[in-house]
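Quick bug: Protein-serine/threonine kinase output formatted oddly.
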Amino acid sequence: MLTTARGLSLRQISSGRLSQIPYATSVTRRNSNWARPPSSNARDNVARDEVARLAATPRRSLTLADLLQHGRPPLSKEALLASANFTLSLLPARLASRIQALRNLPFIIVSNPHMSKIYHNYLHSLSTLLPYQQRKITTFEEETQFGDVLADLVQTHTNTIPVLARGFLESRKYISPEDVTRFLDTHLRARIGTRLIAEQHLALHFTSQPVVDEFSEKDKKSLNSGSSNYIGVIDTALQPARIIRSCEDFVSEICELKYGVRPRLEIGGDPDATFAHIPVHVEYIITELLKNAFRATIESGNEREPIEVTIAAAPDVPGRQRPFQEDADSRFQLASQINRIDSHEAIGDANPSSQSITIRIRDRGGGIPPEVLPHIWSYSFTTFSDMDIDSSDSSNLRALDTLTGSGGHISSIAGLGYGLPLSRAYAEYFGGSIAVQSLWGWGTDVYLTLQGVGKID
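Here's what came back:
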């Protein structure tokens, strides 16, 4: 397979699925000093007062417009360096706030080896960024070295969710489910932003590299045309119907393996609707919602009844959309707003836009029992037995992190109970929502609303 000098295949670049590339293997590590595993010295270099200072730094919410502000790739030198410095301005405070949150947990919780691993991973990542914090990135060489640091950060935190889940499972005697849910709601939402910031710059870095001379003109045209809809990890012409069909195939295979049947899925409404969003986020949410609908339909004995999916694009109301401009001023206008405080960090701009899309998933699975309904947004830790917890091979734990770019997939129809709350976190991060309406004894309607960024020319 033909690959670039950076080790990326043409298919990976032209498909735009850069967020699913294992960055630790695809980024050229030119400076081994930035690629070493965590060491005790690196951890000790992050003083407690330094973490407290960074964690107290005012932070602003991350929006899709932030990620688009530097323009379409390939970026100019000025825009690429601006993207690197913008990324550097955001990450240290976010990492420090996570370290501080872990320190605020009871000592016996953080002493768990899995929780301790997450804690030291964050310390390591912060220690690799601090040397850059006091200076600007001004050359391509520095930007490439910074890319290596980001690749190490992404790889280091690849398995954060399953490791956290295992840690809380083993520590469940010492912390209430309510406290766990409260911690995870904040931590996992913050993780979405931290990871997305790093992955966006890495994707812009890759797609802004010159194509090597030995590529044919046909290959170069393939690279340019294939990624034309993408700005980093954002697909500016994302078609939900295509993702729904892809997720349907995946979930149907799971159902056929587990139950021997696969329900039908019908798409109605506006299947040709498109908007700007992050495909891997939408894919995760849709997969989780279809898993629930398919499982309920089969286990209620109604597998002959189709799962009905309706796609509705919000009407184009004049004055509502927020236009995206690719001029030089727009690339830097948001950087000056860094000091706007966002007390929650998690939720981005929720202003209405003509690019808002709502997806309804309707099943005939009998509905959600009334006693279960109040708890569907809580992170559940009761579905695993002690044998499951002790098993280092638990496929369900590995399955929790399908968004990490590791190439893994959900391997079980039932997991740890993270599906709905984590899906809601991804939907709400950029101003969307998930609402559930259950008719006990009949079925369930789930309404997923996703906000785009307005028209992108």
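Actually, after a second look the formatting is fine. The radius of gyration is 22 Å. Closing.
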